[in-house]
């Protein structure tokens, strides 16, 4: 039998979009692989299922609020994705995305309702995309957030074949007279620290710079960073801790004890706490109350850095800060610790003349309070 030439009328037509490098069939397969994980985040409020042009969420429950305020947040994971790509492990990046987006909503006391995601990649590998979205769905389920939609975009020629980036946006709701923030904070309030699970998703450009400078490969064993057999890549991909459910329970069960919350992300401890304190107040965060976990110490040593030099970049073991009424601080710390999140007092909110020295004065365009870290870190060999 004679073979047909490319120009033969019997030859299958070549999709010009496929010829340009975009594989729509791979995208459809990725959706099929992730469908069940996404559906598990859906309660009766979600309408229309997976695959629509827009996600639908029944907002009837908002009628129970006297004055519902919608809270929204958007973020990404940053260059942490480069490590996932380097070791071909993509099932935890989605948890990081949920942590960066949904936990920002909780800062104002809002309960998350729904979330969408966006993945841009050089080429769609269906299993890889499905792994990422399964992680997002896992985090959404753990925080009580419906994953109602998303988009995967293939960008050949702009991104490398194995490159991708992720972003997300979420919406939540809070009663107007229950919004947390600087206006609730009072002199004498106690600042509680909630332990992080590690680096979370900030400061990875510095992490990658240090690792590269030390000649370390992500597949190399890292006995100082975890259990026997853990590689550098695996240790550095430790997912962001999710605080949503624990904090919402604390807010609901402690009768106005929580006045303000701060998510310790880019900018570090002092700058993020300063954002949620009122003008004219100040606080000193006592370093001696905790010991930064090994990952921070090992990286700082490799980079020939003092830990204090990294305070504006890494969370150093504190993922969230809660400003609470002094008389309820002990109960709040115990409640969070019982939830599996080590929590301890690091400072007190003050007014009036503050001590001489360098304080962080607000951040991210917020003219808030003033914060500085004081003392020396504890020398014990682990986090609080």
Automatic annotation (TrEMBL):
<dbReference type="InterPro" id="IPR036921">
    <property type="entry name" value="PurM-like_N_sf"/>
</dbReference>
<dbReference type="Pfam" id="PF02769">
    <property type="entry name" value="AIRS_C"/>
</dbReference>
<dbReference type="GO" id="GO:0004641">
    <property type="term" value="F:phosphoribosylformylglycinamidine cyclo-ligase activity"/>
</dbReference>
<dbReference type="InterPro" id="IPR036676">
    <property type="entry name" value="PurM-like_C_sf"/>
</dbReference>
<keyword id="KW-0547">Nucleotide-binding</keyword>
<feature type="domain" description="PurM-like C-terminal">
    <location>
        <begin position="186"/>
        <end position="354"/>
    </location>
</feature>
<keyword id="KW-0067">ATP-binding</keyword>
<protein>
    <recommendedName>
        <fullName>Phosphoribosylformylglycinamidine cyclo-ligase</fullName>
        <ecNumber>6.3.3.1</ecNumber>
    </recommendedName>
</protein>
<dbReference type="InterPro" id="IPR010918">
    <property type="entry name" value="PurM-like_C_dom"/>
</dbReference>
<feature type="domain" description="PurM-like N-terminal">
    <location>
        <begin position="58"/>
        <end position="174"/>
    </location>
</feature>
<comment type="pathway">
    <text>Purine metabolism; IMP biosynthesis via de novo pathway; 5-amino-1-(5-phospho-D-ribosyl)imidazole from N(2)-formyl-N(1)-(5-phospho-D-ribosyl)glycinamide: step 2/2.</text>
</comment>
<dbReference type="Pfam" id="PF00586">
    <property type="entry name" value="AIRS"/>
</dbReference>
<keyword id="KW-0436">Ligase</keyword>
<dbReference type="InterPro" id="IPR016188">
    <property type="entry name" value="PurM-like_N"/>
</dbReference>
<comment type="similarity">
    <text>Belongs to the AIR synthase family.</text>
</comment>
<keyword id="KW-0658">Purine biosynthesis</keyword>
<keyword id="KW-0963">Cytoplasm</keyword>
<dbReference type="InterPro" id="IPR004733">
    <property type="entry name" value="PurM_cligase"/>
</dbReference>
């Amino acid at each position: 039998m004679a073979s047909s030439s490319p120009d033969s009328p019997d030859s299958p037509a070549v999709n010009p979009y496929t010829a340009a490098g975009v594989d729509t069939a791979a995208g459809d397969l990725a959706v099929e692989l992730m469908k069940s994980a996404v559906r598990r985040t859906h309660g009766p409020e979600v309408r229309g299922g997976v695959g629509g042009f827009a996600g639908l969420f029944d907002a009837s429950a908002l009628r129970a609020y006297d004055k519902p305020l919608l809270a929204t947040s958007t973020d990404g994971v940053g260059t942490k994705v480069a490590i996932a790509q380097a070791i071909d492990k993509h099932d935890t990046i989605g948890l990081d995305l949920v942590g960066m987006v949904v936990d920002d909503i909780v800062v104002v006391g809002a309960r998350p309702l729904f979330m969408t995601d966006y993945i841009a990649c050089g080429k769609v590998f269906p299993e890889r995309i499905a792994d990422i979205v399964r992680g997002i769905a896992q985090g959404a389920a753990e925080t009580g957030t419906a994953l109602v939609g998303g988009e995967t975009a293939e960008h050949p020629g702009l991104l490398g074949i194995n490159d991708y980036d992720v972003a997300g946006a979420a919406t939540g709701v809070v009663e107007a007279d229950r919004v947390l923030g600087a206006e609730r904070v009072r002199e004498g309030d106690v600042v509680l620290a909630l332990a992080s699970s590690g680096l979370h998703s900030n400061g990875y450009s510095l992490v990658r710079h240090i690792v590269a400078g030390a000649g370390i490969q992500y597949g190399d064993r890292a006995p100082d960073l975890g259990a026997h057999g853990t590689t550098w890549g695996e240790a550095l991909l430790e997912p962001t801790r999710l605080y949503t459910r624990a904090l919402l329970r604390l807010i609901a069960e402690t009768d106005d004890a929580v006045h303000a919350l701060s998510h310790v992300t880019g900018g570090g401890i002092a700058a993020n706490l300063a954002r949620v304190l009122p003008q004219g107040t100040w606080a000193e965060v006592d370093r001696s109350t905790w010991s930064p976990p090994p990952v921070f110490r090992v990286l700082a040593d490799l980079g020939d850095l003092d830990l204090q030099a990294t305070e504006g970049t890494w969370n150093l073991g504190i993922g969230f800060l809660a400003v609470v009424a002094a008389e309820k601080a002990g109960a709040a710390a115990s409640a969070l610790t019982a939830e599996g999140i080590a929590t301890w007092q690091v400072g007190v909110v003050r007014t009036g003349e503050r001590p001489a020295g360098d304080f962080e004065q607000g951040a991210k365009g917020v003219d808030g309070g003033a914060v500085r870290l004081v003392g020396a870190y504890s020398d014990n060999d682990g986090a609080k």
